[in-house]
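FYI - complex with 3-iodo-tyrosine, inputs then prediction.
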Amino acid sequence: MPTITRLINGYPFISYTHETFSPHEMVNRSAAFYNWMEKRRTVRDFSDQPIPFAVIENIIKTASTAPSGAHKQPWTFCVVANPSLKKEIRIAAEKEEKESYDSRMSAEWLEDLKHLQTDWQKPFLEIAPYLIIVFKKAYDLLPDGSKRTNYYVNESVGLACGFLLAAIHHAGLVALTHTPSPMNFLTKLLNRPENERPFLLIPIGYPHEETYVPKLERKNMEDVLVRYE
Ligand code: IYR
């Protein structure tokens, strides 16, 4: 079908069509998608095997299709492969994490993390072939130095990260949503402008050939779905 362009109150709109399915096909497709998404796991043991940069570009293109407040797309994806920069990031992250695990995190928090067996050491920051550091743009900075407001920035960037994780899973790779805290060292190390704040640090790669993940249960539907008829 040809795309039709029309102006609505002077603003350009294009016709949109989307492939639709019968109820039966929808049930099957949504079940198949669930069964495949359900296999995604956060992984902390990476192989150092290289991956093509084209994959990184494609998954970031996918992430960047996420909806955002007023379509401001308030995100920047920094991709680090340089070994010495990865090392600097590891050193800075481990310094913060050691402090957090030793004194900043509450007893309850440490207890809640026990089943994941995490600690302050972050070797994956050097081993994974790429680190994607997602920055949120608190506001836009125009070339003349003026500021423009962004809206629902956390929601928008969170959605983009969800798309990114699904794209990583689809490519057959694994990732870790790492949140060193505080993470302002990333703004400095990556030389980001004043309007950008680090949001998530995502190592990506193949899983290590012998990888274990915590035996987790996902919540039951009764616990997450409330139906109003
Ligand atoms: N940021 C720390 C601690 C941590 C916190 C949560 I909440 C996790 O789900 C996992 C870890 C770390 O990365 O180790």
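Residues 84 and 161 are 26 Å apart (CA to CA). The longest helix spans residues 83-104.
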